[in-house]
Write a structure and sequence with these properties.
Keywords: TPR repeat. By secondary structure, this protein is an alpha+beta fold. Helix content is about 45%, strand content about 20%.
Length: about 575
């Protein structure tokens, strides 16, 4: 656009009269609020104060005044003189009067660069006497709310990846009845052999840091309680001696230091119940034994009653009690996982070897949507029970503008686990597709899922004409939509400040919004400058400005200017 034509906006004035005159109905004055008309919430509200001067309407005259905006006819205004018959508003002949007319109509696209006009008919009795000329009484229509970016935001499910995790290596030593010495055969058991092999393997591994070795000794619940308490403690001590010997063979220095934690837990009734439930005893026998355990809290009486079970006790002594005479060994260590670079390399060379959390985390290390998609698809294939990968596949599709594919993935994720994040994401799909009612419902169900939900609600607020609510929902983040909400809520300075602090400070739409703010503050030169900057980046904004009613001179101002010229 040429600079000359931008200055020539001046700012868009359309000639017209505000006075309707004929012999029977004359010198009516129309005051429209606001002028130009404005669209809010997809509707245009019209308010016109119609002033009748003294002797402006004959006593026996009635009139039908017909307002219209472009091709849309508004409801008629019926008025009549004091001696006319009908249902119109009565206007006194000598005094004149005022009628306030209101209507609300859905916005249509042809209303953008048009006018609010009136015409009508004048009657005397039932006979039409005169036809009123068509006159423009206000410009139409400001549609600035339609500048809203429908950039509804989706939410990625977070990974639970931890670079350093606490792990445990387990082994167990079993003992003979009433004894705490470790039999040589126990040292050849699979779990002790595996413990030695593990200690050998991790000795040179800097990613494994052994923190403590916890050994808990237990006794079976028969015999004297005091002796069993001592026995369990002795078993924890011999467990320590065994681990020290195993660690020495493994040449693991850390496992031979004073990092042991020993505990004698006495008679193991918790373990007894667990093993009993897993045993081959029938349900009646199990229930009888459990009732004895629950009924008698005194350990002496409890053992007495158990021994009184005869064969049942004998079977317990054979099958259950030997499992409880043990020491449990837990080597507690911190395991440092792969570095970012290692994860990225493995995700290409051998992605199937990665755990779910590693895959989800690795996807966050790249901005390449296709690479993100590949990683989430691997996660979904290898861990199909977890809904997060499917949600995140949908989020990538959404950012690639593949709405159908995105919706299918969000629905699948929500079907696997009803959750607020998927509800927000499905709401974003509905919002982009123009189903505001569905979007509003889904965002309501997504409360608490993240700041994205409130941002999305803010977009709907602008579309619904709830600008204060929109400002609140957009929060503290400086975005174009927040600036637009501030402007529509009457805060022109705040809107400009927000734009200048946002990514749109120098974008075409950013400059255009600043032009509107400047014009509303009557800073015409600044408005023209910002339109020029907007048009230089995107010519469509220069063309838009030529028809945008934000930049017209209101009819009321034209009327005042014309009146002042007449006086001269």
């Amino acid at each position: 656009m040429k600079k000359q034509s931008i200055k020539g906006l001046a700012f868009i004035a359309v000639a017209g009269s505000l006075v309707t005159s004929c012999d029977l109905l004359k010198d009516l004055d129309y005051t429209v609020t606001p002028d130009p008309l404005e669209m809010h919430g997809d509707s245009v509200r019209v308010k016109v104060d119609v002033t009748f001067p003294e002797k402006g309407i004959k006593k026996k005259v009635s009139a039908e005044i017909n307002p219209s905006i472009a091709s849309t006819q508004l409801k008629p205004l019926m008025v009549q003189g004091e001696k006319a018959t009908g249902n119109g508003t009565v206007i006194q002949y000598k005094a004149g009067g005022k009628v306030t007319y209101t209507d609300v109509v859905p916005y249509k696209s042809d209303m953008e660069a048009s006018a609010l006009s009136v015409t009508g008919k004048v009657f005397k009795g039932t006979k039409e006497k005169e036809q009123l000329d068509v006159i423009r009484i206000a410009d139409a229509t400001i549609i600035t709310p339609y500048l809203v970016n429908k950039d509804f935001r989706v939410i990625y499910e977070a990974d639970q990846f931890k670079r350093v995790t606490e792990e445990k290596q387990f082994a167990q030593i079993n003992y003979e009845k009433g004894k705490s010495n470790v039999r040589p055969a126990e040292l050849k058991d699979k779990d002790i052999v595996e413990l030695q092999n593990w200690l050998t393997k991790v000795q040179p591994n800097a990613k494994v840091n052994i923190k403590s070795i916890e050994i808990v000794g237990y006794a079976s619940p028969e015999g004297e309680e005091d002796k069993n308490n001592t026995l369990s403690t002795d078993r924890s001590n011999t467990g320590k001696e065994t681990v020290l010997g195993v660690a020495k063979k493994a040449k693991n220095d850390k496992a031979q230091t004073e990092i042991f934690s020993l505990k004698g837990s006495g008679e193991d009734y918790v373990g007894f119940k667990r093993e009993l439930q897993a045993s081959k005893f029938n349900e009646d026998e199990k229930n009888l034994i459990l009732r004895v355990l629950e009924m008698y809290k005194d350990p002496v009486k409890r053992e007495e009653e158990m021994r009184a079970m005869g064969k049942t006790f004998t079977q317990l002594d054979k099958d259950i009690f030997p499992l409880l005479r043990r020491s449990e060994i837990y080597v507690v260590y911190d395991l440092t996982g792969y570095s970012d670079e290692e994860l990225k390399a493995i995700s290409v060379s051998n992605p199937d070897s990665l755990k779910l959390e590693e895959l989800l985390f690795t996807a966050t290390l790249t901005n390449d949507l296709n690479e993100k998609l590949r990683l989430y698809q691997v996660a979904a294939k290898n861990f199909p029970q977890d809904h997060r990968a499917f949600n995140n596949i949908g989020a990538v599709y959404y950012e690639q503008n593949k709405l159908g594919e995105a919706k299918a993935q969000f629905e699948k994720a929500n079907g696997m686990k009803d959750n607020a994040i998927a509800k927000n994401n499905l709401g974003a799909i509905a919002g982009v597709q123009g189903d505001r009612a569905k979007a509003k419902q889904l965002f309501g169900q997504a409360n608490g899922a993240g700041a994205q939900v409130n941002y999305n609600k803010g977009i709907l607020d602008i579309q619904d004409g709830k600008y204060a609510s929109a400002v609140s929902n957009f929060g503290s983040e400086a975005t174009f939509n927040k600036a637009l909400a501030q402007l529509l809520n009457g805060d022109n300075a705040g809107a400009t400040k927000t734009i200048d602090g946002s990514d749109d400070a120098e974008s075409a739409q950013g400059y255009y919004l600043k032009a509107i703010a400047a014009k509303r503050d009557k800073k015409d030169a600044e408005a023209t400058s910002n339109i020029s900057k907007a048009a230089a980046k995107d010519a469509s904004f220069g063309e838009r400005a030529t028809r945008d009613r934000e930049f017209v001179t209101p009819v009321a101002v034209e009327k005042a200017a014309a009146a002042a010229a007449d006086k001269k």
